[in-house]
TrEMBL record:
Compartments it resides in: Cytoplasm; Nucleus
InterPro entries listed in its UniProt record: AKAP7-like_phosphoesterase, AKAP7_isoform_gamma, AKAP7_RI-RII-bd_dom, Cyclic_Pdiesterase
Protein name: A-kinase anchor protein 7 isoform X5
GO MF, any single term: protein kinase A regulatory subunit binding
Taxonomic lineage: Eukaryota, Metazoa, Chordata, Craniata, Vertebrata
Biological process (GO), any one: regulation of protein kinase A signaling
Pfam short name (any one): AKAP7_NLS
Predominant cellular place of this UniProt entry's protein: cytoplasm
Gene label: AKAP7
Feature: compositional bias, Basic and acidic residues: 346-362
Subunit structure and binding partners: Binds cAMP-dependent protein kinase (PKA). Interacts with PRKCA; only the cytoplasmic form is capable of interacting with PRKCA.
Keywords tagged on the record: Cytoplasm, Nucleus
Amino acid sequence: MERPGAGEINSNECENVSRKKEISEEFEASTVDSLVDVPFATIDIKDDCGITDVPQINLERSKENEWISKDQIQKRRKKHKDYQPNYFLSIPITNKEITRGVKILQDAIIQQDKRLSKAMTGDGSFHVTLLVMQLLNDDEINIGIDALLELKPFIEEILRGKHLILPFQGVDTFGNQVGFVKLAEGDHINPLLEIAEAAKRIFQEKGILAGESRSYKPHLTFMKLYKTPWLWKTWFQTLSQNDKSVVKGVKKIDPKLYENFISHRFGEEVVQRIDLCSMQKKKQSNGYYHCESSIVIGDKNGGEPDDAELVRLSKRLVENAVLKAVQQYLEETQNKNKPGDGSSMKTEEADRNGTDCDNNRK
């Protein structure tokens, strides 16, 4: 067999080199694609992956494909970055036994550290979050209301005439920053998860950005330490001229603060309604969130809405009527100011009539 001369390349070696390049390219592409959906992925994915030597075959890809790929990556990142939930579906806690028990828990923690009173959730806003979403204007809010109304028959189908009862027992935290009362295990978990999934699907089908990347874990929040960052700081307390003590900041919720409530039973909540609430608008006088609309679960009296729902619907109808009246007034005002409209023609006609009268007098 003849050996290739200087400058010549064996065909088998060419195939091997080409194959290695293809494998390298496929590996890089799969690595980039897998990181595209990772939150807070940096712009230069290749550098973060340690990919410094770009195979020559990548340079032969068309500029058009590269631009499409970069555009898709940036759109995904922008969508994730701009997604800041400001509305949520709430299951309000109305059982006084539960609210009273959570209040006792909060007081027990405050007795151990009075500073934590600022981190406590008001008893009027106790709830279980079913779904979070982003609604940026009135049109999207109305779409969200329609989606909530469409959710009701799905809930009825899931429950099949049964009540959804949520028992609360025990205490835990998310990252030692959010304290919550746990939802006990039982047959109620599956229907609640099905309702949450149905809500997410309906809202997303209507073009609403809804849901979270993490798995849904229903809970009742009673404390938010991350909402009080000034408690984190360590400072010096002067007791006398020569005596200073160090006061450490509170950076996490110590499990010892709630150890007496680890297995405590707080009570059961019979789910009666689901509200579409705002995270940012002013809360109601009772401490509960601003509510755009509600659906009643397990209707009584043939499905008639309760008094609170009637008040909300009436208020919304009045607001819509006022808004339409204002818009109509503005349109009419703008039309009157336009040259050549009916009002100006009437003015010109009146001027001509006045001139004719003066001529007749002469």
